[in-house]
Design goal:
With 170 residues, the protein is mostly helical. The protein has helices spanning 5-100, 107-122, 149-160; strands spanning 127-130, 135-140, 143-148. The longest helix is centred in the N-terminal third of the chain and has 96 residues, at 5-100. It is rod-shaped. The termini are far apart.
């Protein structure tokens, strides 16, 4: 028995209709899968971007802190260098000032008082010599006294300690 093409037409139409329905379903499922993949990819990209932004901000903050620390240290080093220069200049001026006493009319009386003080510290047999720049040095067995003008002035300056910094600290 042979089937004619007209007899097969309804079967063919039904198969074609079913095939089209299956194709539409497959296309719809593919579209849904593609949309889901796209949403997942966008979410993942947003998460990666947020993490990168957060890490970038943390890295930038670390660099900022390091730069600030370096700047504070450099500023502190400059400040300390300036203070040291002020201190050295003050010492130089003080030494210059006391050494200038050597050429004044008041110096002989000062030298007499220093001699009395040296003998008081070291005893009457102490050997007393003139110090360079003015003042005296005394020596007795096992003991010495530096009463030079430079030594006395710098000792007085050192005794003032950090109070001297008030001269140049704002």
């Amino acid at each position: 028995m042979t089937t004619s093409p007209t007899e097969l037409a309804p079967v063919r139409a039904r198969l074609l209709k079913d095939a089209e329905a299956d194709a539409r379903a497959l296309l719809a499922a593919a579209d849904e899968d593609a949309a889901t993949l796209l949403r997942n990819a966008e979410t993942q990209a947003a998460d990666i971007f947020a993490e990168a932004r957060s890490q970038g901000a943390a890295d930038a903050e670390a660099v900022r802190r390091a730069l600030c620390t370096r700047a504070r240290r450099a500023a502190r080093a400059r400040e300390l260098a300036a203070r040291r220069e002020c201190w050295q200049e003050l010492r130089r001026q003080v030494v210059h000032g006391v050494e200038a006493l050597h050429d004044t009319d008041a110096y002989p009386a000062l030298e007499a008082r220093l001699t009395t003080h040296a003998r008081h510290l070291l005893g009457p047999d102490a050997r007393i010599t003139t110090a360079p720049g003015g003042g005296l040095r005394g020596e007795a067995p096992g003991r010495r006294a530096d009463l030079s003008l430079t030594s006395l002035a710098l000792g007085a300056l050192d005794d003032l300690g950090s109070e001297v910094e008030e001269l140049w600290t704002p």
